[in-house]
Design a protein that fits this description.
Length: about 100
């Protein structure tokens, strides 16, 4: 297969990042904030490319590393905790139903 699983969405984000003006128009964030955001978008586009290549069958061994440059370990941990709580609640409901039978 060959790329394009997400219509090369990463390249559209990369175009936005490249064209983002550091000094914007009315009511914009300070230039340093915009520059930091540009750098973050570059990281996100790299992670998106890795995801797209993997989902298209081309392969990118750095997907997890690139994603983790965009998010924190605490983001992952919190999601895992939330998922575990949901699973536990579902388990309790099933267990209560079975115990009533």
């Amino acid at each position: 297969m060959s790329g394009g699983h997400y219509d090369y969405a990463y390249s559209k984000l990369l175009d936005f990042m490249v064209n983002l003006r550091i000094k914007g128009g009315c009511h914009t964030a300070p230039p340093v904030v915009r520059q930091a955001f540009k750098e973050h978008l570059l990281k996100v586009s790299e992670a998106m490319k890795a995801i797209e290549w993997n989902d298209s069958g081309d392969g990118d061994r750095n997907e997890e590393e690139l994603i983790m440059k965009c998010i924190s370990n605490s983001d992952v941990l919190q999601l895992a905790i939330d998922d575990a709580k949901k699973s536990f609640e579902e388990f309790k409901k099933i267990l209560e139903k079975i115990e009533k039978e």
